[in-house]
Amino acid sequence: MSWFTATGGDRYADARGALVRVLSADRTRTAGAGVYLCGRTLLTCAHVVNAALGQRMLSARDPGGVTLDVSFPVLSAAATRPARLVAWIPPRAHHLGPVPDGSLGWEGDLAVLELGEEPPSPVGPVRWLEMARGQEVRAWYGGGQPFSYADVRVAAYDDGIGYLDGQLSGAAVDEGYSGGPLWCVADGAAVGLVMGRITAPDTALSAQHTVRRSWGLGWQSVLLELRRAGALPEPYLSGLAPSSEPVSGADPDSAETVRDMMVGPLHLLLGDPATRAAHGTALAGELGLRTPADGTAPSVADLAQLLTRTERALPTLAESLAPTVAEDPRGRGELDRLLALGRLTGAARLLSVAEHRLLRAKFEHLCRHDPGLLHRAATAALPYLDLPDSLHAARLAPAAVDGVLRELEIWPGDSSPVPDETPRLPALLRVVEYVAAETGGLACRALQEWSGQVAARLGIHASALRERRADAERWSQRSAAAGARILVELDRHAKDPADHYRCAVWRLRADGTAARAVTGSERPRAGREIARLIREIAGGTEGAERGVALVAVSVPPDALELPVDEWDGAGVDEYIPAPLGEDFHLILRCPRLRRRSRTGAADLTRRWNARHRGDPLRADRTVGGRAGLIGLLKTVHRDTARVLVQGTAAQRGELLPVCLVMGVPIVLWDRGPQAPDADPDPDPLTPDGPVDQLPERVRHFRVRAYADPRSGIRPALVWEDIELPLPDELQLADPAEGLTGPADTAEGTEQAI
Predict the structure, then answer these.
(1) Are 574 and 608 in contact (CB under 8 A)?
(2) What integer is the mean pLDDT of 351-372?
(3) Closest listed residue to residue 543, CA positions, set 599, 593, 491, 482
(4) Per-residue DSSP letters for 257-326?
(5) Is the pLDDT of residue 218 over 70?
(6) 625, CA 20 to 30 Å: which among 180, 344, 655, 713?
(7) DSSP string, 623-637
(8) Is 702 exposed, middle or buried (0-12, 13-18, 19+ CB in 10 A)?
(9) Are 424 and 464 in contact (CB under 8 A)?
(10) Residue 636 to residues 317, 482, 537: CA-CA distances in angstroms?
């Protein structure tokens, strides 16, 4: 391609941005190299870890969760940060035994390290492609010095191992290179890891000796080893290792034929040289290519070659052509023909560079706030398709978004052709519509606008998009059937037995009126007895046959850690246990604390009405204790409705009252046992996701946690719905007045068990 040329700049910047230096335990030398994969994950060789620890290089003994010092040469080779060993794949001989000293080849030999936090830019992941014979690759010493590069060629690739030959000039692959990436300049991707070298014997050098030959593990072998060990961070790497398989229905040898077939439509669409030059220049700018400044235009053949070989070139060109053919049926037909030809190549993809960049940014932002959103929307949008591998995880990190988009781009359409035999709506656009509908607000409108523009560019009939949008809106308005609603108030008298509480219970009718079921004043009850009472009352309440019942328990300030959700209401003859937290949306309330603030009621109303906006606040030891949390809730989190409290029981005892006094309506914490200095994993208890579905998510989690004897997590949830009356707000009619009210019905009589 003479008209389109690659830009200048550093062709190795991506690889050096991922290079890792692994230091010895005493920090006096470079033990080897590594490569940054994604997130907080690093990859190196197991023998590099052994070298850092001063062990025998090819020892198979797992050193356990040791911590090594690493650095990123692109930042500073001297600024170290700790990385913990989280996966160990020991070196092994080809016969699966230990590797003898002096061996020239072995298998395994990988180690995965995890940083405490993600590194800053310009550290970043690299593209990965499979290793193949003939690739020209470059390796660097672990210290990352610019002059330390060694250029070699994959002279042979056999059984997962690439043998690398270097010329007798420049640096050679030597000690300290192991574990680093092998960077293929032509492909702009890493293709494997440096593993070892094959040295000449300790005799006088002769022409028969092997000189400057090293070897590395191909990326396809690295993937296999990591998957076998369950050490591959799939949600991240699914987007970093584009599939080398051809697009479904494509013939990998047909690129030349497709290129020739594109010439006709391109002549009709861009026959004028000036128009072709304008579109070609815009296309090159989006793809990061250079164009001549002499006023010439690319030939149609040059353009066709670019479209069949460069990722996203065709949809990017179609993006600029679509407005010009909107009112031209013939031009629209030729553009559709061009797009159809593009589907025969693996390079075209569905989205243009700009479309992909915008959607990726929006999805990454949404995944930070709701990690389950993409999985939830895709499951609903594509009910008759097996979801792609990248969407099997119910929770996605932002770094996984690119992999999801890459897979959904090649997924088939989801409907039959619509009027005039126009194209089917791609699966990706349907998922976008469902994400938009679930998100709502400005984000919804922005995604729908994006979807409409892409559909118009693809020539999709407007009615197809409207139909899918209506489906998505109906789905987003789904709601579980309203089940029974039970209000419970617990209290203790000074002389009551330990672990016994007096309880008052009310049923709420569908019209919001209440009926007292238990007065609560007659005697203290044990938790199991109260649970059995609640079960019986819930079973006889209006709406009991629909959905999951809500049980709102008002507790005194000193009873927030009370394990009400674990109280088992099963009868003596019942076979299956029935903890309240498994069978009901069991939520806590503590109105006494909120009333200790003159603005508590107003704060609660303001925050509750803002519960769908903003991010949740994680209140842990970093917030600065009680005073720090008060400051946050008064300033940058003045409208925050969701708080995840983390820490020990003593720390929670300091932070929980602050949240409730200041009117935070949704507070989630783990009251399970934990080490005093441990940081609880917030992931299972995250308040992210659709707010109104949080009680149901917590119920599901409780079912799993109670069934797993190894799980010590016990979620507690305060849920102060302003539309749900408190016990002392209930207006009960006086039967003596002759009015029909909650207390004047059979429901209003006290029940005993």
Answers:
(1) no
(2) 88
(3) 482
(4) HHHHHHHHHHHHHS-SHHHHHHHHHHHHHHHTEE--SSS----HHHHHHHHHHSTTHHHHHHHHHGGGGT
(5) yes
(6) 713
(7) G-HHHHHHHHHHTTT
(8) buried
(9) yes
(10) 44, 35, 43
Alpha carbons 271 and 690: distance in angstroms, whole number: 52
Opening angle at CA 88, ends 82 and 234, nearest 5: 85
The pair phi, psi for residue 589, each rounded to 5°, is -140, 150
Tell me the C-alpha to C-alpha distance, in Å, between residue 610 and each of 25, 187, 594, 606. Answer: 51, 49, 18, 6
- Quote the pLDDT of residue 254: 58
At 43, the pLDDT band (50, 70, 90 cuts) reads very high
What mean pLDDT value characterizes the chain? 80
pLDDT attached to residue 157? 79
Residues 6+ apart with CB under 8 A from 7: 288, 289, 290
Tell me if 180 sits within 8 A of 192, measured CB to CB: no
Bridge-based pairing state of the strands 136-139 and 189-198: unpaired
Contact 165, 53 (CB under 8 A): no
Q: Region of 644 please: left (phi>0), alpha (psi -120 to 50) or beta.
A: beta
Closest CA to 140 of 176, 191, 166, 168: 176
Q: Which CA distances in Å does 366 have to 57, 360, 513, 656? A: 45, 10, 39, 28
Taking the C-alpha atoms of residue 36 and residue 192, their distance in angstroms, rounded to an integer, is: 13
Confidence of residue 454 (pLDDT cuts 50, 70, 90): very high
User: C-alpha 528: how far from its chain's center?
Assistant: 40
- 247: helix, strand or coil: coil
Please enumerate in sequence order all residues whose Cβ is within 8 A of that of 538, keeping only pairs 6 or more positions apart, or say none. 484, 486, 544, 549, 551, 584
Cβ-based neighbours of 678, under 8 Å, separated by 6 or more: none
Residue 444 burial (CB count, 10 A) = 18
Instruction: Using pLDDT thresholds of 50, 70 and 90, give the confidence band for residue 250.
Output: very low
Question: Can you tell me the distance from the alpha carbon of 652 to that of 672, in angstroms, rounded to the nearest whole number?
Answer: 12
Q: Is the pLDDT of residue 558 over 50?
A: yes
Closest CA to 617 of 639, 601, 648, 594: 639
What would the two tokens of residue 516 be? 């007292």
> How many residues are present in the chain?
753
How far does CA 47 lie from the centroid of its chain?
32
Query: Around Cβ 6, how many Cβ atoms within 10 Å?
Result: 12
CB 628 within 8 A of CB 659: no
Q: Are 396 and 439 in contact (CB under 8 A)?
A: no
CB 40 within 8 A of CB 114: yes
What residues contact 642, with CB distance under 8 A and at least 6 apart? 611, 616, 617, 664, 666, 667, 668, 687, 691
Cβ–Cβ < 8 Å for 729, 514: no
| pLDDT, average across residues 257-270 | 88
Rounded to an integer, what distance in angstroms lies between the CA atom of residue 349 and that of residue 609? 42
Within 10 angstroms of residue 175's Cβ, the number of other Cβ atoms is 15
Q: What is the mean pLDDT of residues 685-706?
A: 78
Find the mean pLDDT for residues 580-609.
91
- Judge if pTM exceeds 0.85: no
Sequence-separated (6 or more) residues with CB below 8 Å from residue 178: 32, 33, 44, 45, 47, 48, 193, 194, 195, 196
Contact in structure between 577 and 508 (CB atoms under 8 Å):
no
